[in-house]
Amino acid sequence: MYETLKQKLGERASDAPMERALYSRDLAPVPSLVVESLFRTMPDLVVRPANDDEIADVMRTAHRKSIPVTPRAGGSTVYFNSVPVKGGIVMDLNLIQGVVDLNENAMTVKVRAATTFEALESWLNKHGMACQSMPSSAPVATVGGWLNTMGYGIGSLKYGSLASQVRSIDVVLPDGRKKHLTRVSNPSIRDYGGSDGTLGIVTQIELDVRKQSPMAHYLVHVQDARQTGAVMNALCSRGTLPYHMHFADAPYLHSLGALGYSLGNIADGSLVAVDFEGAESELARAKCSVEDVVGSNADLSLLPEDMADMEWNERFRAIRIKRGGPSLLGAEMTLPTFRLTVYLDDIRESGKRFGFEPLIYGHACPNHHVTVMTVFTADETKTLPYIINLSLVKKIHDAGRRNGGVPYGTGLWNTPYLHRIVEKKELENMRKLKSNVDPSGIMNPGKTYRAPFLFNRPGFAIGNNVLAEVRRLVRIKG
Q1: pTM for the complete prediction?
Q2: Could you tell me which CATH class the domain 325-408+448-474 is placed in?
Q3: How far is CA 461 from CA 36, 85, 86, 393, 477, in A?
């Protein structure tokens, strides 16, 4: 079967070991000892289809032989969303790029799924348009990939998730059939938002865009970090909704400062960056709102405009802190903004108990929620200490859970938390749809719907709690 695909696709199909190895990882710094003992992440074949017909042909062939297929484009996540766990075929979709059509009257654009947000934004800007929202990894993240892995980021505060902006999608189903799906079709585009590529190959997306407009940026120093959530809520409640807003706590900022990324001499507290877009009159009202919030609280101060502009220009480099290395571990949670203060206290107490310093930043989301990334330094070259340190990721998840939070994204590594991510009935419906669309289970198996055996509750919880206690008692470094 693999030989047949190699003959059809020529140089765009490869079983060379070195090339296949490139597709056996993503950005997650997980030791090979852990990965290789649990999963078969090395694909048997890598294919690079150039159009929908070739994608459909590969899927029909895989469907007949029950061969797993894992779609991949940017591969910019850390949850193994696009890494195979049962070998088979990795479908590299990076040839499925380009803008197909811009409808200025309807304010929509049709774009091929592996187009990066940076490329789409650049194309739209030349036509006086812009994306409504985009991920912080826009230079490498693709439109289809972000739809498949949730889709909250820069601009989501004002315009919602990517799934809410999508009008229609073209998809190749696991059996090779091509479908055009809308918000009212069955399945619908809502089913594909956050589906991790488990329901087929999305090839084209029609999504809402906005007029390119002026922007204004502000950087607020919050002297008491415990006020961060209240300040963010206040900035969202003064009439002019920000386009984007994010925060970083003092330890995170100190780590950036040590790398030469200085945002001012911030000894404590946090920084809140808030960005507005719209007509000049709207930006004038936004300025009054920010000044009103800052002026009404003695613990708040505005940093210079050029620093706020610099922070906006760095918006696609949120993980620049990783340059301090050797690596980072952590977890991303979405929780109510009013619980942010308690979460910060909770996670810092866990840090004291288990001997790690949490570095925290986050983005405001619609409906008074915030997506919070909590990381700590670790050394992936020291395998045993690193594996023990992995147990602290669960402690971060537990702190989020105690404060009304849910994990952001699923993929493979968050499947142990499925019971926290989706309600039981919703999970049953997701599994039913998966069974209907992909009865052979060939489409990106091992993701989203259930945890692998060794990740099942309660064994996963017990094992991680034991390792965390070892970490606490021995105070393992690295």
Answers
A1: 0.93
A2: alpha beta
A3: 21, 22, 24, 11, 22
